């Protein structure tokens, strides 16, 4: 019940933060924006409490919990979470909300690994099946239970992505002449030049940015701006390079006519892909949990 209330609270936080600019503009005439500090201070505490309860739930044998069983069930996840938190602290993470969020996530992952491994071990002991076969058949026979666990894992992955992307985003804005470069995180960004194209009904202006990573990776980003003859507001197309660890965003802010000088905004945001992956995993877990059981239909 408490978990459901926290879920509703988290959803309302995101919903309110999203519609608040529209509400403020309607009521006061001024469009007030809600930034990352709002979500970090309101959403993260709710998310931490939610995923912490997710970790506790599977390991509690309701009505049978003793001090010894609690110690046995929680020791490994607590050690993992504490060790991971200590490692992050040594690496320079000092903000308590991201620290707690990551520690809670590792705690839940530890409890889920424990639950899955116990289930597989018990099935192997009875059936002598191989690990992969026992794993898949265990999920097939107990879809609601293990589908729910997969949903829990998906939510944890999403929270990790949201926490990392909001807490460790790096951003810079530069005014550059063609050929000039700057460095953001492990990337050297070189402004190659600005081009304009006239199309039917609109014009397109874009810049090319050559990006070189300290690991040797090279790619080109091409952010654009579109201007319409109808007088509609210009539209900006952000150029993105995605990976499992982080995304690189480039935005073409503006330029000085006749000079080739352009204003570029660059962002390096970690773990954005984890949010997407968590969303897909959430769908998979939900489908497993709600998939009809043929044995019950026959009965």
TrEMBL record:
Q: Name one Pfam family in it.
A: CcmF_C
Lineage top rank: taxon: Bacteria
Q: Which residues cross the membrane?
A: 5-23, 43-62, 74-93, 99-121, 146-168, 271-291
Q: What is this protein called?
A: Cytochrome c-type biogenesis protein CcmF C-terminal domain-containing protein
Q: Residue limits of the Cytochrome c-type biogenesis protein CcmF C-terminal domain? A: 1-290
Which lineage is the organism of this entry classified under, starting from the top rank? Bacteria, Bacillati, Bacillota, Bacilli, Bacillales
Tell me the keywords, alphabetical order.
Answer: Membrane, Transmembrane, Transmembrane helix
Entry annotated with the keyword Transmembrane:
yes
> What is the species listed in this Swiss-Prot or TrEMBL entry?
Caldalkalibacillus thermarum (strain TA2.A1)
């Amino acid at each position: 019940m408490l978990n459901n209330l926290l879920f509703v609270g988290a959803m309302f936080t995101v919903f309110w933060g999203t519609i608040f600019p529209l509400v403020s503009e309607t009521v006061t005439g001024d469009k007030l924006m809600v930034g990352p500090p709002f979500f970090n201070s309101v959403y993260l505490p709710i998310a931490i409490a939610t995923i912490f309860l997710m970790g506790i739930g599977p390991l509690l044998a309701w009505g049978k919990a003793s001090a010894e069983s609690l110690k046995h069930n929680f020791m490994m996840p607590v050690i993992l979470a504490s060790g991971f938190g200590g490692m992050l602290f040594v690496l320079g993470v000092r903000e308590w909300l991201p620290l707690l969020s990551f520690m809670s996530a590792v705690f839940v992952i530890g409890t889920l690994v424990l639950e899955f491994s116990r289930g597989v071990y018990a099935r192997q002991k009875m059936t002598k099946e191989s690990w992969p076969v026992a794993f898949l058949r265990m999920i097939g026979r107990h879809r609601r239970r293990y589908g729910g666990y997969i949903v829990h894992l998906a939510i944890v992955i999403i929270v990790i992505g949201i926490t990392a992307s909001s807490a460790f985003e790096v951003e810079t804005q530069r005014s550059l002449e063609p050929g000039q470069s700057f460095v953001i995180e492990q990337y050297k960004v070189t402004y190659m030049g600005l081009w304009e194209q006239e199309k039917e009904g609109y014009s397109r202006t874009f810049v090319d940015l050559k990006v070189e990573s300290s690991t040797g990776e090279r790619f080109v980003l091409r952010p654009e701006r579109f201007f319409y003859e109808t007088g509609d507001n210009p539209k900006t197309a952000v150029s993105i390079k995605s990976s499992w660890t982080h995304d690189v965003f480039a935005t073409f802010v503006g330029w000085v006519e006749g000079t080739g000088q352009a204003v570029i905004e660059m962002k390096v945001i970690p773990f954005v892909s984890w949010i997407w992956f968590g969303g897909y995993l959430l769908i998979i877990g939900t489908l497993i949990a709600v998939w009809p059981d043929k044995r019950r239909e026959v009965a």
